[in-house]
């Protein structure tokens, strides 16, 4: 990577310091068929499914969010991450006009709009991949072995694989060749096209599987046209600060903190969280991590640790540095377990009622807790870059101060013994006492 490309990463746009995302998986939330049967209609007789999200935008605002983070919405074969056309809305969701309506509705409510960009791989039904096996110029988009015969399954039946690079062994997902100029150009065109149409940010799916130098070629070119765009890389393990620096993304997903949060609560052992918060502080020296306690790829926090302990996870999320995301349904204490099988994500990607009025009242207490904590964060916007100073620690108890870069401070205590409980003390405010139902 050249010094010129490294220097091209600007300071992240200022609006992100005040952003809190509500993340939705559109195919699931709107009840679209995830694995359509041959001949099954992709649309229904009503309005495009993407329109079904509009009644939920006011709900997101009532929650306290000011950003809508959408899962994949582009044409794909099944779950959205097997893209077959980056420039078309999935017909199960609608069309360009439906997207334009949603983008306009977000703007009307002051909601930033983040899209999910799958640029590590495509589905094997993608026209570029279908054309590539013929030996034409489309081969430059992919990585084939010398033995590739043109089959889209195991190329010679000997179990050695399909003859083309895949994403993590999934033969239905063909990895793109990120060394090629053609793929660089494709990525620039995709990202720019939807920013032109009204998006304000991108989640870069499986960014960890892509050489950072690829992003360092792509993102500066996109920022030339959209300097206020924000780019979030999905990174699970590894050196987060180095990835941010080398790739020029603005942030990465803070999976370390996610894991430490739920496992500390489940195991009644805050020492793991203490260690992770030290690492989190170090990350804040170079970028602002994207924080979360749930997303479309993991078991729901309420299923992992129970609703009462999940409440403490939300306290943590809203009182440490970072750009927080709330995954749809977590604010209602939804349950759902991810299984490592075909369709194993379906339970954590459920359909929403047609309108918020259709939600069960059983989750109301968790919604109110989210609103209270998001309100606290809004009153103390310095929390976005706050460091965490642990004050006291043992297995079932953790107390810490959130400290702003200008010395602002609030105090948080978490307790699992005898029952989950938390307190947040901010100067000049009544204590926020969290005593979730058992």
Can you characterise this structure?
- This protein is an alpha/beta fold.
- The protein has one domain (about 5-385): Glycosidases (TIM Barrel, Alpha-Beta Barrel), CATH 3.20.20.80.
- About 30% of the residues lie in helices and about 20% in strands.
- The protein is built from 13 helices and 18 strands.
- The chain has helices at about 5, 25-30, 55-65, 95-110, 125-130, 180-195, 210-225, 240-245, 255-265, 270-285, 300-305, 305-315, 365-380; strands at about 20-25, 65-70, 75, 85-90, 110-115, 120-125, 165, 170-175, 200-205, 230-235, 250, 290, 325, 385-395, 395-405, 410-415, 420-425, 430-435.
- The chain has an eight-stranded parallel β-sheet.
- Strand 10, helix 8 and strand 11 form a beta-alpha-beta unit.
- The longest helix is centred in the middle third of the chain and has 16 residues, at about 180-195.
- Residues about 1-10 and about 150-160 have low confidence and may be disordered.
Named CATH topology: TIM Barrel
Shape: globular
Tell me the domain tally.
1
Helix content estimate: 25-40%
Overall pLDDT, averaged? Answer: 94
Instruction: Write out the strand line-up for the largest beta sheet, numbering strands in chain order.
Output: 11-10-9-5-2-1-13-12
Question: CATH homologous superfamily - what is it?
Answer: Glycosidases
CATH architecture: Alpha-Beta Barrel
Q: Report, as a whole number of angstroms, the end-to-end distance.
A: 53 Å
The overall strand count is 18
Identify the CATH class: Alpha Beta
The parts where pLDDT drops under 50 for at least 5 residues are 1-8, 152-160
Organism: Actinomyces bowdenii
GO molecular function, one term: hydrolase activity, acting on glycosyl bonds
GO biological process, one term: carbohydrate metabolic process
Domain Glycosyl hydrolase family 13 catalytic: 23-377
């Amino acid at each position: 990577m050249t010094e010129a490309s490294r220097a091209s990463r600007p300071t992240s746009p200022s609006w992100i310091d005040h952003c809190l995302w509500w993340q939705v998986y559109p195919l699931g939330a709107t009840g679209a068929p995830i694995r359509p049967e041959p001949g099954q209609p992709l649309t229904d007789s009503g309005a495009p499914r993407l329109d079904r999200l509009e009644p939920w935008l006011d709900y997101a605002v009532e929650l306290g969010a000011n950003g809508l983070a959408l899962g994949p919405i582009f044409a794909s074969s099944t779950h959205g991450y097997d893209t077959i056309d980056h420039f078309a809305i999935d017909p199960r969701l609608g069309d360009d006009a439906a997207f334009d309506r949603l983008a306009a509705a977000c703007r009307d409510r002051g909601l930033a709009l983040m899209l999910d960009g799958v640029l590590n791989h495509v589905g094997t039904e993608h026209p570029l991949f279908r054309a590539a096996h013929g030996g034409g110029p489309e081969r430059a988009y992919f990585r084939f072995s010398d033995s590739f015969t043109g089959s889209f399954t195991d190329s010679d039946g000997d179990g050695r694989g399909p003859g083309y690079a895949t994403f993590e062994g999934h033969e239905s997902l063909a990895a793109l060749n990120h060394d090629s100029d053609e793929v660089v150009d494709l990525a620039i065109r995709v990202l720019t096209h939807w920013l032109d149409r009204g998006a304000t940010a991108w989640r870069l799916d499986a960014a960890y599987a892509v050489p950072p130098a690829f992003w360092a070629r792509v993102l500066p070119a996109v920022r030339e046209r959209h300097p206020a765009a924000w780019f979030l890389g999905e990174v699970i393990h590894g050196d987060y600060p180095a990835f941010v620096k080398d790739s020029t993304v603005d942030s990465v997903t803070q999976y370390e903190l996610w894991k430490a949060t739920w496992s500390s609560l489940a195991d009644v052992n805050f020492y793991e969280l203490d260690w992770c918060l030290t690492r989190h502080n170090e990350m804040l020296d170079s970028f602002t991590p994207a924080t979360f306690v749930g997303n479309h790829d993991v078991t729901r926090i309420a299923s992992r640790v129970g609703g009462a302990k999940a409440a403490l996870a939300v306290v943590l999320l809203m009182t440490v540095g970072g750009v927080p995301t709330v995954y749809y349904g977590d604010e209602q204490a939804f349950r759902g377990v991810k299984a490592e099988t075909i369709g194993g994500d379906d339970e954590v990607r459920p359909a929403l009622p047609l309108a918020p009025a259709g939600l069960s009242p059983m989750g109301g207490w968790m919604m109110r807790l989210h609103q209270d904590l998001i309100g606290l964060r809004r009153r103390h916007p310095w929390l976005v870059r706050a460091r965490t100073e642990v004050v006291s620690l043992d297995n079932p108890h953790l107390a810490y101060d959130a400290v702003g870069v200008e010395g602002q401070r609030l105090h948080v205590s978490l307790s699992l013994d005898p029952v989950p409980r938390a307190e947040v003390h901010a100067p000049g405010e009544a204590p926020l006492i969290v005593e979730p139902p058992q």
